[in-house]
Amino acid sequence: MEIEHHPHLVPNIFLFIDRRCFPEWTIQKAKIDFHDLTFVVDGKADYYINGEKFTAEAGDLVYVPEGSVREAHTFKEFPMHSYPFNFFWAEPHNHIHLPFKGVTKKVITKEILGYIREFNHVWMSKQPFYHIQARALFELILHRLLSNYYRKAPMPIDPRIKKLTEYIAEHYSENLSIAELAEWLQLHPVYLGRLFKQSTGTTIKEYVKRIRINNADMMLSSGDFTVKNAAEMCGIDDIYYFSKLFKEMKGYPPSAARKQAGLKHLLE
């Protein structure tokens, strides 16, 4: 399941608790119609998911997708302390499963734990519009988990690479030289390239291309720009190369994005 092909997933969290288990704690065997994403921060527990046994310990992630039969109990000698998120994907996407299987070992970073604690504060305080803030924090957690899963890169991102991606976001339409970027960061170009790929899973050139095409797609989708205008404003002067690159990355030609924008305006 390629979850990145589902850009419209919206999690609706209906249960979150700071679960500090007593020695006899259990979850009775039952089929669930929601998703259970549990972060174990201390102790141990055995989970049975569709009859398969998984042992979760501190630092582990438990994932039980909707439609699964779930059962669990903690270890009496080491009662589990965890933070479970129970949620639905907004319709019609609840059948979409995250790529994690049962228990994923040692995935909780300081950054993720910080988001969880902030989520806990927001969820408990229940200030006006807290659901919006809580959902945003949960999506940051999902982003970190999924990025780590697909990229297999260390977390969190190197501050120099973060500085560079922020610069690219502001200057993507300019002629970006890797040598000049490396000099700006006081790094050797080869080392910068290696560090960037390790942190993002892609090369600087490919990253810049993606930023340019994504921005061009937004411009065309607004209906306010021609294909030629969008290409030039994103730093690509060759319209034929732009069209080819756009279709390779998006799966449809730039003219289709602009045509879709026109149809939306007609319906308004």
Automatic annotation (TrEMBL):
Keyword DNA-binding included in the entry's annotation: yes
Entry keywords, A to Z: DNA-binding, Transcription, Transcription regulation
Domain HTH araC/xylS-type: 162-260
Keyword Phosphoprotein attributed: no
Record-level Gene Ontology MF annotations: DNA-binding transcription factor activity; sequence-specific DNA binding
Coiled coil spans: none
Gene3D superfamilies documented for this protein: Homeodomain-like (1.10.10.60), Jelly Rolls (2.60.120.10)
PANTHER family: ARAC-FAMILY TRANSCRIPTIONAL REGULATOR (PTHR43280), HTH-TYPE TRANSCRIPTIONAL REGULATOR EXSA (PTHR43280:SF2)
Descriptive protein name: AraC family transcriptional regulator
Species assigned in the record: Paenibacillus albilobatus
